[in-house]
Amino acid sequence: MMQTIKTPVTKSHLTQLRRRSTKQWGHFNLIKIDLLFIGLCVAVVIYLLIKEPLLITILGCASVVFISLWHLIKAVPILEKYLGAKIRFWHIASLIIAVTALLNTFAAPAQAIFSAD
Question: Quick check: 78 pLDDT over 60?
Fold first, then answer.
C-alpha cells in the first residue's frame, strides 16, 4: 500500500506581503473622525502646495533628512552585529562628511563651466 504525503502549499511572497500590510492597518483602529482629520490634513497640504510651494519643498526636504536619520539609527545595531564592532558617532559623522565632499567634487566642474564670470 502506497502512502501519499501532502506537501504544504506555500503562498507567494506577494500574497504574504499583502496580508501582512492589511494586518498592519488593522491595529490602528481608525474611526470616522480620524479619517476626517486625515482628509483635512491632505487638503491643507494641497492648499499650501499651491499657495506656498517653497514651504512645502523645505518641509519635504527636512522630512527626507529625518526619515533618513531614523533609518540610519535603526540600521546601526544590525551593522554592529554584522561587522562585529562598535559603531560610534564619529564613524557615521566622518562617513557623512566624506560622502558630502565626494559629491561636492562632482558638482564643482559643472559650476566652473556654467559660472557667470
Answer: yes
Q: What is the pLDDT of residues 28-77, one digit of tens each?
A: 788 889 999 999 999 999 999 999 999 989 999 999 999 998 998 899 99
CB of 74 closer than 8 Å to CB of 81: no
Cell triple for residue 74?
A: 535603526
* 92, pLDDT greater than 80: yes
Residue boundaries of the structural domains of the chain: 28-111
Cell of 48: 499650501
79, three cell numbers: 551593522
76 burial type by CB count under 10 A (0-12 exposed, 13-18 middle, 19+ buried): middle
Name which of 48, 66, 69 is nearest 57 in CA terms.
Answer: 48
80 near 87, Cβ under 8 Å? yes
The residue type at 111: Q
Indicate the pTM of the whole model: 0.49
| SS3 at position 51 | helix
